[in-house]
Amino acid sequence: MYRRDTLTVGVDGDSADRVIDQVREWIDSSNRLVVLSGAGISTDSGIPDFRGPQGVWTKNPEAEKMATISYYLSDPELRKRAWRSRLESAGRQVDPNAGHLALVRLEQRGVLHAIVTQNIDELHQRAGNDPERVIELHGTMRWTQCWSCGDRQPMDEVLDRVRAGEDDPCCLAVIDDRRCSGILKSATISFGQNLDPHTLMRAEEAARSADLLLAVGSSLVVHPAAGLVPLASRAGARVVIVNGEETAYDHLADAVLNGPIGAILPALVEGA
Ligand code: NAD
Ligand code: ZN
């Protein structure tokens, strides 16, 4: 076991270049780099995170309810608000940013084994990462899923029904000659819902087999996703954390880079 001697820097501090050089060396010599990404990698694309300074919950604590399964299932008014908010999100143009593109370059260089993401925006795939390498722990908002029968439909098609006047569209699947009529939600994991066991297993395998785990843009407080950091660390991986503020696992990291992801990730990947 190598000595854990955490290097923590803000990107504009004096020692930042030294730490970036060090992490770049670790990346260059890695054979199995696993990225764990969170909402912070997508804020530069215009998607707010939950807990950052500009986060949805920081500004509006009520929004937490919308992402909590028990409230969603029991409150039709909250579901109507959720559908209106999905409609608004779908109307916004969202593109991958420099952080996502840096991870594509890592894959092109053959270093990247997997991206385990907490994000539901599919921006890693749209940036150009191989979808087979992207493990979506919390599902995707590009699909809907019926709470009763599990039927999945493209989000765009259900949003068309909302545009046409249905404020809480229900499931249209027909089971035993009867319409299911179950509650629809995005095919994402809300708080209070279990993760898909197969997806979680793939993520754990990736973390366990990593020689370098790069956690990017997550406060690392949502479990079981955050638990992949100690899991990788216990299995012998180096841990590097890139985030704008401190995270729950900074103490486990070999290096913590505090600063804008859109600047740090390209700096870590560039020129190697
Ligand atoms: P989080 O909101 O808990 O933490 C995001 C972290 O990123 C914060 O610490 C914040 O300071 C940091 N950050 C934000 N923008 C940054 C930037 N440009 N540079 C550096 N740091 C930056 O996010 P989380 O841990 O991923 O958990 C939120 C949960 O909500 C996830 O489970 C996810 O499923 C969901 N979520 C997803 C999206 C998305 O798909 N884009 C957006 C919001 C929430
Ligand atoms: Zn159904």
Structure description:
Strand 7 and strand 8 form a beta hairpin. The protein is built from 11 helices and 12 strands. It starts with 6 loop residues before the first strand and ends with a helix. It is elongated. It has a 7-stranded parallel β-sheet, sandwiched between helices. A 3-stranded antiparallel β-sheet has the order 6-5-9. A two-stranded antiparallel ribbon has the order 7-8. With 272 residues, the protein is an alpha/beta fold. The structure holds nicotinamide-adenine-dinucleotide and zinc ion. Zinc ion binds at residues 146, 148-149, 151, 171, 173, 180, 182. Residues 146, 148-149, 151, 171, 173, 180, 182 line the site of zinc ion.
Q: Helicity level, as a percent range?
A: 25-40%
Question: What does the main sheet amount to?
Answer: 7 strands, parallel
Radius of gyration: 20 Å
Bound ligand species: nicotinamide-adenine-dinucleotide, zinc ion
- Tally the helices: 11
Principal-axis shape equals elongated
- Are there runs of 5+ residues with pLDDT below 50, and where? none
What string gives the helices and strands in order?
EHEHHHHHEHEEEHEEEHEHEEH
Query: What is the number of E strands?
Result: 12
Spatial ordering of strands, largest sheet: 1-12-11-10-2-3-4
Global structural class? alpha/beta
- Average pLDDT rating: 92
- Our measurement of the CA-to-CA distance between the termini, rounded to an integer number of angstroms, reads 26 Å
- Strand portion: 15-25%
